[in-house]
Amino acid sequence: MLSLDEAQKRAENLVEAARKAGADAADAIYVCNASTNVSVRLGALEDVERSEGEEIGLRVFVGRRSATVSASDMNPASLATLVDRCIAMAGQAPEDAYAGLAPEDRLLRKKPASLDLCDKGEPDPAALKERALEAEDAARAVPGVTNSEGGGASSGRTQVALATSHGFAGSYAGTSHATYASVLAGEGADMQRDHASHSVRHLIDLDDAETIGNKAGQRAVARLNPIKVESGQMPVIFDPRVGSSLIGHLVGAITGPAIARRSSFLLERLGEAIFDSQVTIIDDPLRERGLRSRPFDGEGLPTQRRALIEAGVLTGWLLDSASARQLGLEPTGHASRGSGGAPGAGPSNVHMEAGSATPGDLMADVTRGLYVTDLIGMGVNGVTGDYSRGASGFLIENGGVVRAVAEITIAGNLIDMFRNLVPANDLHFRYATNVPTIRIDGMTVAGG
Questions:
Q1: Are residues 192 and 234 in the same domain?
Q2: Could you tell me the sign of the dihedral formed by the alpha carbons of 393, 441, 278, 280, in that order?
Q3: CA-to-CA dists, residue 56 to 7, 100, 198, 295, 366, angstroms
Q4: pTM of the model
Q5: pLDDT per residue as tens digits for the range 75-97
Q6: How far is CA 184 from the centre of its chain?
Q7: How far from chain centre, in Å, is Cα 44?
Q8: Are residues 235 and 198 both part of a single domain?
Q9: 212 shares its domain with 232
Q10: From residue 123, how far is each of 38, 137, 211, 213, 261 by CA, in Å?
Q11: Residue 311 neighbours by CB under 8 Å, 6+ apart
Q12: How far apart are CA 251 and CA 273, in angstroms?
């Protein structure tokens, strides 16, 4: 693994070589991921895996034509060959009126923000094994748990360096630590599985392994003896660990490429109230220790905190430079990319701000409804907003959870779902996308 300084210099040298070889413009991105993963099952070590991979990608522009080539060989001689190949490919590419580097006057010029993304220490495999065993042991100790799919612990480091031919060069790194456990409860055909996990930037912020394992065991046991429910319309309450998927559908519909292709169910909704006025959704790439925090985007533009939904109103799109040009707008600092291919657009740390009601308040007046803890399948149409997914969770009757339910389908249209969405006040920051408990009335539930 190159150091950050070495990686940034390698990217700058590659860009300079491309310009000398005839490219009108170029950028290069270096990405390295290194991780150690330890998994256990039934109290025994199952696997220890160490992976480390680094790639560098070069994108060149020759007139209105462009090409991208990536390589994992950092040898200067190999990279020289990469430059020649990339320029030759660009000469054969079709013209694209919207391709190009980010606007020069919008590049990040100051020192990138320090977001506290790197832990100083790195646990050794023995410490990871101990943590994995502790998580699985705690899960298996829950009465009713009968088998295990395993426990695990990991640590990793990611490094990114980006350089462009019109004046940007920057780099940053981030570490990760995670623990998980997955177990089964019950016997035979009646077995149920569930899991728990936690991922953080700094080890000190990680939930202790016993807590994670106990949560996995309790969740699995709670799902035993599920019943089926009669079909009909009813309120659906989403647990925070699955409610975040609704924000994923929103984000997918407001990315620049989807809008430019006119393939989004929110295409004509800019500036409109698509949620209740109590709903605000924030994208915050500058959150300290955030799982998707970044000081600059994939094109060298500065990132900033912004509301995607402000008091229910859709405020704008997530734009990389190409989609911004196509729409006649300015890029928003949301370009995302790997080492291969042109940038796309995507979010960073996203959260829905907490509402005023407790989760109990959301449930109190529900005569018959569902509390969903697991979603299955991908039955969502990004063009029409039609939504249909398999689900499991718990039946709500007269304001309280009464029985586990399984083999159900919940359906609706995201426009109606967003309009009827009510957030609770229990927001916690545990994932890259975070939401409180969410209630949506009027969804169609189909029993098994």
A1: no
A2: positive
A3: 9, 19, 30, 20, 54
A4: 0.95
A5: 888 888 899 999 999 999 999 99
A6: 27
A7: 31
A8: no
A9: no
A10: 11, 20, 19, 20, 46
A11: 273, 277, 278, 279, 280
A12: 16
